[in-house]
């Protein structure tokens, strides 16, 4: 794992700020419920991970959510949505990073992005069913959802939404990566040299 130096922390801070701004530019996607929003804030975290390693990607995901929580707050009073966003981000970024690191090619990046989208969608479905949806109903003082209601919400809403969101982020990232792949590789090599 790459060690993070001062330059890495400055870059992580900048990428976290960009991720926070992208997080504000979210939008709903019909026919999914309005609380499911698409944004492209995972892209800076993915760039951080590719250049400085997985810890950098996790830190960008963490800092953007902390910034958003303190700047915009939460309907529940506690950061349930922000924790959910953080988990979704790392469940997307980490598989992409590890698969790409193993294959080191454009094909590897494509496989990583598709795998990251699927892993994130499946794991977030499980987490929503077990933890996140019950936490929302508890903190918002809504009546608890029955198991069949939660299953329906997960299968018809959350799972397909997260697959579409992951694939949209993947498509936008591939457009960026096709223009920046040489620069990202060079920066990654420089970060590796300066960490040694």
TrEMBL record:
Membrane topology: Multi-pass membrane protein
Similarity comment: family membership: Belongs to the prokaryotic riboflavin transporter (P-RFT) (TC 2.A.87) family.
GO CC term (a single one): plasma membrane
Biological role: Probably a riboflavin-binding protein that interacts with the energy-coupling factor (ECF) ABC-transporter complex.
TM spans (from-to): 6-25, 45-63, 83-100, 112-138, 158-177
UniProt KW Transport keyword: yes
Keywords from the UniProt entry: Cell membrane, Membrane, Transmembrane, Transmembrane helix, Transport
Chief subcellular location: membrane
Source organism superkingdom: Bacteria
Protein name according to UniProt: Riboflavin transporter
Organism: Bacillus mesophilum
Gene Ontology molecular function: any one: riboflavin transmembrane transporter activity
Compartment list: Cell membrane
